[in-house]
Amino acid sequence: MVQRESLSLLSNNRWRSRIEHVVSYIHLAIKQAVKSRCRYRFGAVIVKGGRPLAASSNIARNDPRIDYRHASVHAEEAAVRRVTVTRRAIIYVARVNIRGDLMIARPCARCQKVLALAGITWAHFTTSNGLETMRIGA
């Protein structure tokens, strides 16, 4: 029964359009992740009203041997810093390994707090099996 319902949703043009948008924004986040020079390669894109507002990858800040807890600026934080209006925005986060395979990119507790304070309501992120969605601040 669930498969039939999901297939009927995909046949609906409105849902197909939404899914295509999610995939296109995740693709932008993957492009940002590939640009990262960090060991764990993350990328993030903030979207509001169907328009990308900011995109960033994680940025190396300190040598992990000196301060492993603050060794990088997370991609979500870097993207939030690049934009002024984030109320009711959506963030798309991707992580890739050295071979370019998708990995889990669920925002950490620190990033969830930053996103909630910025007013971002939803996060779509990659997993090794595809995509997942989470509500921020709920």
Automatic annotation (TrEMBL):
<keyword id="KW-0862">Zinc</keyword>
<protein>
    <recommendedName>
        <fullName>CMP/dCMP-type deaminase domain-containing protein</fullName>
    </recommendedName>
</protein>
<dbReference type="InterPro" id="IPR016192">
    <property type="entry name" value="APOBEC/CMP_deaminase_Zn-bd"/>
</dbReference>
<dbReference type="InterPro" id="IPR002125">
    <property type="entry name" value="CMP_dCMP_dom"/>
</dbReference>
<keyword id="KW-0479">Metal-binding</keyword>
<dbReference type="InterPro" id="IPR016193">
    <property type="entry name" value="Cytidine_deaminase-like"/>
</dbReference>
<dbReference type="Pfam" id="PF00383">
    <property type="entry name" value="dCMP_cyt_deam_1"/>
</dbReference>
<feature type="domain" description="CMP/dCMP-type deaminase">
    <location>
        <begin position="20"/>
        <end position="138"/>
    </location>
</feature>
